[in-house]
Design goal:
Helices cover 43% and strands 17% of the residues. The protein is an alpha+beta fold. It has a three-stranded antiparallel beta sheet with strand order 5-4-9. A three-stranded antiparallel beta sheet has the order 6-7-8, with no helix packed on it. The protein has a two-stranded antiparallel sheet with strand order 1-2.
Length: 300
């Protein structure tokens, strides 16, 4: 097909360009490549913080971590393939408004149901059975928007000269002048008739904020690390700030993940008791301070 082919009097090549173009005016804080990159980046940090121990042979640790943190829970039950951790849905309600039944739909094992705490155990992350995807999505969006601001700012700092031409001939003259400037010529000689009011230099240095946005990115990342229980340096450190003030978020760091640890610990204790396993759950220690490491209870 020729590029000049028309559809409703519009060249096909222009329609294709319009369809697949990335529009600078479009603001998409979620579904873009940069946000997708940061989702994976943040998940690596999250999964690097926690780990299951004593997992039986044949169980997939990555599957357990992804299901627990992204879905919010998984079920452990006996199947025709042995005792396994599986994704599931929840149904039923008891007097405490908690689910009573796990509904499993597995492409290999088929569809079946189990009664919670009777022939299966739910290991959940949070009291409301939700995962961390909203949190991951929030921080990935903020970081991606920072990248977008940096990209736009770097592009704008490239536009440093503006010429006001009174005619097409003068415009061509200015183009030639700019070419010589770009080539590094130390001097340019012009005819009379061109005044300095026709030249305007964009204040690139004054408009450069990319370095400030980089600092903002570090602050956003530090906030995320605090949420997942990783100690981080206080970026607002002032002169003569004491170590205790710098590490003032230590208690906040521990408090943020304690709910997760408590819920997972309860679930693992029930799993070990029901199926005679010896699974544990640890919080990896990256800071070397007491309280940064934790492990679930084991069966007596």
């Amino acid at each position: 097909m020729s590029n000049n082919t028309l559809w409703n009097n519009v060249p096909i090549k222009d329609l294709v360009r319009e369809l697949f173009a990335r529009r600078p005016s479009d603001v998409d804080g979620v579904m873009n490549t940069s946000a997708y990159y940061y989702r994976l980046y943040l998940l690596k940090k999250l999964f690097g913080r926690f780990a299951f121990t004593g997992v039986p042979e044949g169980w997939d640790h990555d599957y357990m971590m992804e299901t627990l943190f992204m879905e919010g829970y998984f079920v452990v039950t006996d199947t025709e393939a042995g005792v396994l951790p599986l994704k599931c849905g929840l149904s039923g309600i008891n007097v405490f408004q908690k689910p009573t039944t796990a509904v499993i739909a597995n492409p290999v094992l088929g569809n079946f149901e189990r009664i919670i705490d009777v022939d299966c155990v739910i290991c959940q992350l949070q009291p409301n059975y939700e995962g961390v995807y909203p949190m991951i999505n929030r921080y990935a969006t903020l970081l991606a928007m920072c990248d977008s601001s940096i990209s736009v700012n770097l592009m704008n700092t490239k536009t440093t000269y503006v010429f006001g031409a009174a005619s097409k001939a003068q415009s061509e003259t200015f183009k030639k002048i700019y070419d010589e400037i770009s080539c590094g010529n130390p001097a340019i000689f012009m005819k009379d008739g061109i005044n300095e009011e026709q030249f305007f230099v964009m204040p690139a240095k004054q408009n450069f904020i990319a370095d400030d946005v980089q600092i903002l990115k570090r602050k956003i990342l530090a906030e995320f690390l605090t949420e997942i229980g990783i100690n981080n340096t206080n970026l607002d450190k002032r002169e003569r700030l004491t170590d205790n003030e710098v590490e003032a978020n230590d208690q906040e760091v521990i408090a943020n993940i304690q709910c997760w640890i408590d819920n997972i610990t309860i679930g693992i204790r029930k799993i070990n008791q029901m199926f005679g396993l010896n699974i544990g759950f640890i919080v990896r220690d990256f800071g070397g301070r007491e309280g940064d490491s934790n492990e679930s209870s084991k069966p007596d």
